[in-house]
């Protein structure tokens, strides 16, 4: 329904796209009352950091870089700034698919790589747990979430479904996709998580 990050300080802050916040609150409000929890919209400055080393609050780290976020009540001046598209590109390459309002209720977690990045299978019950756990432990997953980096235009096929938008970045087309596992051998792959055309 929505993707977000949880930031814990004195209380819990949910970092979420403003267009998804109403959906998030609507989905969780029936459960929040059982725990005496409530939601309050609090707008702060969010700074995303892309670093070579893992940071204390990193939420994704791979062999190339680490992604982390910082919340601030006041705007601050940074020594070095990247554009927002650099941030989106880094998340896409790190296999972190960011939902937007057109993606709500379309995908299952395993289609978006969330079963690896965002779902904890040892944390008790959650909505949709039965289906997600059944796919992990009992199901046969015939598809795989991948990244695509191409100098050519990327097109869908019967074996390849593009997820979200295709980014044009520094002469490359970059996309997240689902590919049928049987067709992976058709491509030349050095890293099984990324197809480079």
N-to-C series of helices and strands:
EEHEEEHHHEEEE
Shape: globular
Structural class: alpha+beta
Q: How many strand segments?
A: 9
What value does the Rg take, in angstroms?
A: 18 Å
Task: Provide the spatial order of strands within the biggest beta sheet.
Answer: 7-8-6-9
| Share in β-strands | 25-35%
Count of separate DSSP helical elements: 4
The helix content, as a percent range, equals 10-25%
Q: Give unreliable regions as ranges.
A: 188-192
The averaged pLDDT comes out at 84
User: How far do the termini sit from each other?
Assistant: 32 Å
Major sheet description: 4 strands, mixed
What does this structure look like?
It is a single chain. The protein is of the alpha+beta class. Helices cover 19% and strands 28% of the residues. It has a domain at 107-197. The chain is built from four helices and nine strands. The strands form three sheets. A four-stranded mixed sheet has the order 7-8-6-9, covered by helices on one side. It has a three-stranded antiparallel sheet with strand order 3-5-4, with helices on one face. It has a two-stranded antiparallel ribbon with strand order 1-2. The protein is globular and about 50 Å long.
């Amino acid at each position: 329904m929505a993707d977000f990050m949880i930031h814990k300080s004195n209380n819990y802050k949910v970092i979420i796209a403003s267009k998804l916040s109403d959906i998030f609150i609507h989905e969780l409000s029936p459960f929040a009352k059982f725990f005496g929890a409530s939601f309050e919209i609090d707008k702060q400055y969010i700074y995303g950091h892309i670093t070579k080393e893992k940071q204390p609050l990193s939420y994704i780290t791979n062999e190339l870089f680490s992604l982390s976020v910082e919340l601030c009540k006041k705007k601050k001046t940074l020594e070095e700034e990247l554009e927002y598209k650099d941030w989106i590109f880094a998340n896409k390459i790190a296999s972190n698919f960011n939902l937007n309002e057109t993606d709500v209720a379309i995908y299952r977690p395993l289609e978006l790589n969330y079963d690896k990045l965002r779902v904890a299978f040892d944390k008790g019950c959650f909505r949709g747990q039965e289906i997600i756990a059944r796919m992990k432990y009992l199901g046969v997953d015939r598809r795989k979430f991948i990244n695509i980096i191409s100098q050519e235009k990327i097109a869908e096929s019967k074996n390849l479904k593009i997820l979200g938008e295709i980014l044009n970045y520094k002469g490359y087309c970059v996309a997240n996709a689902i590919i049928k596992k049987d067709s992976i051998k058709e491509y030349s792959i050095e890293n099984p998580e990324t197809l480079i055309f």
